[in-house]
Specification:
This protein is α+β, with helices and mostly antiparallel strands. It is built from two helices and eleven strands. The chain is elongated.
Length: 173
């Protein structure tokens, strides 16, 4: 198995959010454990933002360059910060358009085509708002809410998780 094939396999294991992957072909064996792995003894094995590790007999251990860590949730506003409190209140009435799957988020049907929706656009339930590519399949995502787009939460061509917020929509819109 070539290094390129191993790198592709690591990307696939990460994209599918597998906790563990094992493969054996003759004398070659491969074992990958990700941050989602939970040992039989108890708690999870924490790997932080590191990429999955693998080991092969009589070969060096290889870890691919780590990707940028996924954006974490914003910390809760501190009490007494009126601007932050007000911003949180302003967003509390917004509805979210969420990702129905894990994949890569695209705002337009093709690189040379206009985006499906932009800030200020009014959408109705059932309108296509983006595409999510998963396993080389391009899936149109339809909105389940109606209103005006007020914020795009994901950059174009970025990976998204299941149930991740893609857009914030003002239902009063």
């Amino acid at each position: 198995m070539s290094i390129k094939e191993i790198q592709d396999l690591l990307k696939l294991v990460s994209k599918l959010e597998l906790s563990e992957f094992k493969m054996k072909d003759g004398e070659f064996s491969l074992s990958i454990r990700t941050k989602h792995f939970v040992s039989g003894e108890g708690g999870p094995i924490s790997m932080g933002a590191q990429a999955p590790m693998m080991s092969m007999p009589s070969a060096p251990v290889y870890a691919p360059p780590s990707a940028a860590p996924a954006p974490s949730a914003a910390p809760a506003p501190a009490p007494g910060n009126s601007e932050e409190d007000q911003a949180a209140e302003d967003e509390s009435h917004y509805l979210a358009v969420k990702s129905p799957m894990v994949g890569t988020f695209y705002r337009s049907p093709a690189p040379d085509k206009p985006v499906y929706v932009k800030i200020g656009d009014t959408i109705a339930s059932g309108d296509t708002v983006c595409i999510i590519e998963a396993m080389k399949l391009f899936n149109e995502v339809e909105s389940e809410v109606s209103g005006k787009i007020v914020k795009v939460m994901v950059e174009d061509a970025q990976p998204v998780e299941y149930d991740q917020v893609l857009y914030l929509v003002d239902p009063r819109g």
